[in-house]
Amino acid sequence: MEVKRFASEPGAPAKTLAYWNSVVRDVFYSPWELRPRAPDTFSMTMEALAIDDFRLSRATLGQAQIVNTPEPGKHRGDLIYYLQVASSGQHVVWDGGECFMRPGDIMLLNSAMRCSSVTEEDYTTVALTIPGDILRQYLPDPRLAVGQRLPRTEGLSRAASQLLLSLWELSDAGALTDLGGKLSHNLLEIFASSWFANSGALGPGTAAKRARAAQISSYTDQHIRDSDLTVASIAAALGLSSRYIQTIFKEQGEPLRSYIRRKRLDGCRTELMDPSCRDRSITTIAYDWGFNSTGHFPRLFREEFGIAPGYLRKQAAQGWRKDCDPRSSQQARPEKTRGAVGR
Which of 172, 199, 285, 328 has its CA 20 to 30 A from that of 142? Predict the structure, then answer.
């Protein structure tokens, strides 16, 4: 296994930066761009080697922002993933989230995510580049694990971090010829186990997933009238990622956004049919159940129940009880299939 080595050479800053952007893109198969804090004095070294289907790399560089700006539609095929660990703190921001990585923490990124990583000091990072089809042998949907920091202070995460660093140490000593591929697969197995343990995702249909879905629905039901209740706010409150809670909840039979909308519409329907609420306007009821746009509310209500909210209230006021339930009327569309969560 031959290690390719790249190092800064004296020259014009613009030329040096263009050279490094080209190197980084070649190593990671994605348009990562370096934005040094001090371009005139920026220096960097990078080493990379192929290990079967993987690529192992180590980069040492000065203070900089590193940005991935993938071209829209370019990654319609299989994605490339990067498992990385750094020697110093990094502030990482991506579409849908951000975190601060401490030295030794480990994180998974991919080639399609818009991502920015900033460090306030010189640092070294070691990364394993992984084809998507290989990673899926260990994580059925690797995208769920993208952007989640696994702290070096916890058992399996610490083992994954140490193994990734050890892979480079072995490569530097020329000792990966026979073991590199096997150790890389061992790393993925440990990383996947660590992610499952930290996220609670222990496999399809498990009690852990059902318990997590129940926790999500319970929190949602308690805050269903909050107009600012969103998938992102639920995820933040529960300390989980938006991708994860959407996936877990959908596996129980209904997307989370649909569940929120349905529960709010059900609440509105109940109050529209309740004689004690007859003095409250339809607009007030809609706002009280978290709908910010009264313009969209009538359309959503009709789509759900097959009847306009005003007409339903009129029928209820006339004493129509059994037949005024639009789900049982002939005006209503067929009942949608729904999951058991929250029912």
Answer: 172
